[in-house]
Amino acid sequence: MSNYDVKQEVTDKYSLRGRVFNRIREDILSGRYKENDELKEIAIGEELGVSRTPVREAFRQLELEGLIQIVPNKGAYVTGITMDDVKDIYMIRSKLEGLCARRACEHITEAQMEEMEENVYLAKFHAEKGHFDQMFALDNRFHELLYESCNSKMLEHLLKDYHQYVKRVRSKTLSTIERSVASNAEHQGIMEAIKNKDGDLAEKLATLHVDKAFSNMIKNGLKEVYQND
Amino acid sequence: MSNYDVKQEVTDKYSLRGRVFNRIREDILSGRYKENDELKEIAIGEELGVSRTPVREAFRQLELEGLIQIVPNKGAYVTGITMDDVKDIYMIRSKLEGLCARRACEHITEAQMEEMEENVYLAKFHAEKGHFDQMFALDNRFHELLYESCNSKMLEHLLKDYHQYVKRVRSKTLSTIERSVASNAEHQGIMEAIKNKDGDLAEKLATLHVDKAFSNMIKNGLKEVYQND
DNA sequence: AATGGTATGATTGTATACAATTATCCACAG
DNA sequence: CTGTGGATAATTGTATACAATCATACCATT
Fold it and tell me: CB-based contact (8 Å) between A83 and chain B?
């Protein structure tokens, strides 16, 4: 996140360090490791059958990703997400997803456009049925698609990072059927604006969408299931 | 950047790894290490009088910062900044500095406001005299001040990262006296808008300022000295 | 001469040993 | 009973040794 973050997409999947990194990242994002949990190099090394060296290197990367905080000579702790952080991220995403949607109007490929349409129509089905798991997946995919269609590696990567980051919180917030349906309707609006190459509208709708997702999250508080954005 | 990037501001300044990290970072930003230069663990370790271990850990962090790219089993190479990257960053900064300036209207402290005014008036003096070094420093400080006054750790950190990142390019672009004077006049406009707590104006001016800096950079191409933004 | 393969050296990846630092706990004084 | 001190254990920081991988060069074969 370090920020902008031009790192390669695949954090060398096949090195021990890469495996450790991805594993811990998943465990934090999925909630297996909770806020303020202490991660010990030896314990994790033994669990994954590797020595401390790759674990340490993975820790350094996770720290820059903002997932853990390393206190020198003391330990590594899973960072908490404060309400301020979430608020800040949504504020930033609000602007940048608008920008992203505007650029998508000019740069989206046919294949991406097609998948986006498919996504919206499929999601409509699942939203009405109350299939939350599928909704969650489709919702995530919609946003990733949007990011990929803006034709800016920097912007795409930044937005994916943030999106990934707030997943931790979204997975704890309550999702209602009403919000799911509304969220998907908003997706549809964005999708159609992009299809019509209406940059102004696409930007406006994407910004509004993020703002609404945040309002809804606040309104419902942090509960059990998850949050559609 | 990593991205959002919640990492501690001081990358433990007193550990060997922290020192190696800061040193290499400086060397890349200052241009001592150039694009595609290969960084060897042993060579750097010997130069700084440390073993490979802290060097390797520093490398991992630098990779996430986007300053180097590590090719597994091969080596670490200083990443180049493409014109697309620069364009993307200015596009993103344009939006976010606007947001930042708007927030500054509500959150800037008295001390920060005072330093900002001082900065503008001092810069005006140096701009007219053609003191480029002082201008460069004051310009950087103005933006950092702006970032610090928005009262958002996330936004502040993100903008500082980007600002730092493009320094590599800015230090190679030509700065004219005309642009220096114009740039500082823009700073003054932003500063006054913030002082008057005119959020709309501050956002508009800050966005425009970044856009103009980018246009100017394009117009002049990448030359010897540096670029005021 | 061109190509292919093998040997060799250089460099990174990983594991382990040792040093430094921090936390814990118990004894003991007040 | 409380608080301080130091010994001890646990954990991270660093250095080094070894394994794996990659690049290069040289020689053999065609």
Answer: no
Per-residue exposure over B133-153, b if at least 16 CB sit within 10 Å of its own CB, e if not: eebbebbbebbbbbbbbbbbb
Q: Which helix (H) or strand (E) holds B88?
A: helix B83-107
Residue A1's pLDDT is 42
Residues forming a β-bridge with A75: A71
Q: Find the residue closest to C16 using CA and C1' atoms.
A: A51
Contact between residue B167 and residue B175 where contact means Cβ atoms under 8 Å apart: no
Candidates A17, A72, A89; nearest CB to B4: A89
Q: CB distance B152–A91 less than 8 Å?
A: yes
Residue B53 Cα, gap to closest chain A Cα (Å): 9
pLDDT digits over B119-159, tens only?
A: 999 999 998 888 888 998 999 999 999 999 999 999 999 99
Instruction: Report, as an integer, the average pLDDT of A147-157.
Output: 95
pLDDT digits (tens, 9 = 90+) for A196-226: 999 999 999 999 999 999 999 888 765 433 3
Residue nearest to nucleotide D11 (CA to C1'): A74
Which among B6, B57, B69 has CB closest to A60? B57
Question: Domains plus CATH for chain B?
Answer: 3-78 (1.10.10.10), 83-227 (1.20.120.530)
Give residue-wise pLDDT tens across range B52-66. Answer: 999 999 999 898 888
